[in-house]
C-alpha cells in the first residue's frame, strides 16, 4: 500500500518521464512538483519506491525511470485525465463532419485522426460477426480431449480441440451437445462475443456444463478473429518520433509487430467487457516495451470494432484516453443516432 506522498512522487516521476524521456532526479521533482518537500525526503521516498519495484536507476549517479509496474499503477490509480485542447477537439470534429458512404470509410478516417492527434500508430480492427450458428457437434477423441465442430450459415469451423472437463462421461457428452445446440443454434456469433459468460442462462441441471460453455465461447472468439476480420493501421512512421525507437532493433521489432495482422488483432480484441483497455508490456501479453490503449465500438448490426494506439510504454496515456473517449462519443452519435423528438 503506497502512502499519499509516495503516490504523489511516483505520479510526478511518471509524468516527467513521459514528457522528457530522461531519468528524473529528486531536484526535478522538488522544483517542478513538490516544493513543500525537502530534497532529502524525496530522495528517501525514491529509494523506497525503487526497492518496491516501481522505479529503476539506470546508473548510480542518474535519476530514476518508472518500471512497467509503475506505469500500471499510474494508469489504474494515479493518472490525471487532462482535457483535449480546443485545436485537438476541432481537428477530431472536422473528420466527423464529413459524409461517409460505408463502414470502411469510417474505419479509415478513425485510424487517420487518431494517429494525427496522438502522434502514435493507430490500429482499427473490424469484426464481422454476422454468421448464424447452424449446428454444434462434440466428438470425443478418447485422449481427454474433444473436437468441437461448429457449422455456421457460411462456413464450417472444425479445428477447435479442447480439453474435456474432468470426469466427463460419454452420456454427459451427448447431453452437453444437445444443450449447446439449444443455446447456440439460430443465434449470431455476435450474440456471444461481447459479454461475460451468462451462467444465469444455464438450467440448474446443466450446471456441470458451465466450464464447457465457457470453452465454446472462447472457441467462437478465436474463430471470429480468423474470419471476417479487417485490420487497418495508420502512422507507423510515428514511432521514429519517440526516443525508444531511435534504436534500430526496437524499431524493427515494432514494425514487425504491425505486419502480423492476426496477432495485432488478438492484442486489440482480447479484452474484457470494459469499453477501455490499457495493456502495458509483456505482462499484459503485448510486445516487450510496448503499450496498447484500445476502446470498443459497435459498427453496425453484428459488426463490432476495436480502435486505439500501439506505442512505447512511455506513452501519454491521458491524452490517448481523451482522444479515444471523444471519438467513441462521436462514433456512437453517428452510427446510433437518437430518434428525433
Characterization of this structure:
With 341 residues, the chain is α+β, with helices and mostly antiparallel strands. The protein folds into three domains: 4-78, Arc Repressor Mutant, subunit A; 86-129 and 228-335, GAF domain (Beta-Lactamase, 2-Layer Sandwich); 133-226, Enolase-like, domain 1. The chain is 43% helix and 20% strand. The chain is built from eleven helices and ten strands. It has helices at residues 4-20, 26-32, 39-51, 68-78, 86-96, 103-118, 170-184, 210-226, 248-259, 261-269, 317-335; strands at 55-56, 65-66, 121-128, 133-140, 145-152, 156-163, 229-234, 276-280, 290-300, 303-312. The strands form three sheets. The protein has a five-stranded antiparallel β-sheet, with helices on both faces. A three-stranded antiparallel β-sheet has the order 4-5-6. Strands 1-2 form a two-stranded antiparallel sheet. A hairpin with a 4-residue loop joins strand 4 and strand 5 (145-152). Helix 5 (86-96) runs parallel beside helix 11. The radius of gyration is 24 Å and the shape is globular. It starts with a helix and ends in a 6-residue tail after the last helix.
Helix content: 40-55%
Strand content: 15-25%
CATH architecture of the largest domain: 2-Layer Sandwich
Q: What is the domain total for the residues?
A: 3
Looking at the structure, the CATH topology of the largest domain is Beta-Lactamase
How would you classify the quaternary structure? single chain
CATH class of the largest domain, please?
Alpha Beta
The chain-level mean pLDDT equals 84
Q: State the CATH superfamily name of the largest domain.
A: GAF domain
